[in-house]
Amino acid sequence: MDVLRNAVITFLFLGFLNFSTLPWKNSVPVMNFKQFEPELNKKNDTVYLVNFWATWCGPCRDELPAIEKVGEKYKNEKFRILLVSLDMPNQINSRLLPFIKTNQISSDVILLDDPDQNNWIDKVDPGWSGEIPFTVIYGRDFRNTYNTSFSFKELDSIINQKLNSP
Amino acid sequence: MRKLIFVFGLSLLTLAFTSAQGYKVGDKATDFKLKNVDGKEVSLKDFPNAKGFVVVFTCNNCPYAQAYQDRLIDLDKKYKSKGFPVIAINSNDPQLSPEDSYDKMIVRAKEKKYSFPYLFDETQNVYRTYGAQKTPHTYLLQKENNDLIVRYIGAVDDNYQDKTQVSNAYLSNAIEAVMAGNKPNPSFTKAIGCGIKDKAKRT
Description:
By secondary structure, chain A is α/β, with parallel strands linked by helices. Helices cover 43% and strands 19% of the residues of chain A. In chain A, strand 3, helix 4 and strand 4 form a beta-alpha-beta unit. The N and C termini of chain A lie far apart (43 Å). Chain B has a single domain, classed as Glutaredoxin (3-Layer(aba) Sandwich), CATH 3.40.30. Helix content of chain B is 31%, strand content 20%. In chain B, the strands form two sheets. Chain B has a seven-stranded mixed sheet, with helices on one face. Chain B has a two-stranded antiparallel ribbon with strand order 6-9. In chain B, a hairpin with a 4-residue loop joins strand 1 and strand 2. Classes of the chains: A alpha/beta, B alpha+beta.
């Protein structure tokens, strides 16, 4: 019975994620850190880029076009982008969704709503001060973190290398 | 001329070094002299009766800094009389963040009726020396003989969204600990914040 229940929940959840990938979203999944943490620890052949950002963060906004362009370039490869918004939960409708629509963001976006930041920042990376943007790029055998604002050229060369390293 | 270039290079190096390092808990903090919103210069030595200071790197524009404006007023009201006044500092480069200009600081301080100095770190040297990375970023200093010792670095508390839901008021707890002669625990916390706007680190 539990198996069936879990299957139904998984099915609903997957449906929710698929829905969220549709351009242009009219909602974003809201997660606490515990719900979000598996996104940082997948073990398979895919290269994951997890970017912490917010609409109020200038350097984050500056690098989003580069991230989007890389996502478009490698859309048929084993590469997945997750944009983790740290916008205020009460500004989803007033700021986040309009931003996603205006900038036609096609990468997946979630909102991380977990105010106990001192507890989870180290779980993302002990070297992270909490300043955004912050990006984790990882795969089965590697994990790199970046606290800079990417240009397309920089990010393209990183992803290209990660996808093609033997 | 060559000597001048050498000195300039050396000071740049020093800047880069301090910017990457900054203070750790237990370090001696240096005083500063910065312009307040009332036009007067303020230094920590102007407070001979203070037992220490709550130095907060903050600004006008950052939503996280805004979320803590009222809490800084509360902290100052509660602890100034006990010898730990709040000293707020805006280190953002107004060319990168026009909302954080000196004139806009004056407006904000009036609007919010700040009970504490709100200082403009125009050269950005103070935030670099302290190692502040974002707003808000707090440093609790305690006077010891003629020194200022860093006792706590980090966030105000563990809930930026709602002060009624705070379960650990890190900064107040640290002040209470220091007043009781104890070491704050934790003495270092992390939080999400807006990076301090500085052309030198813009990539």
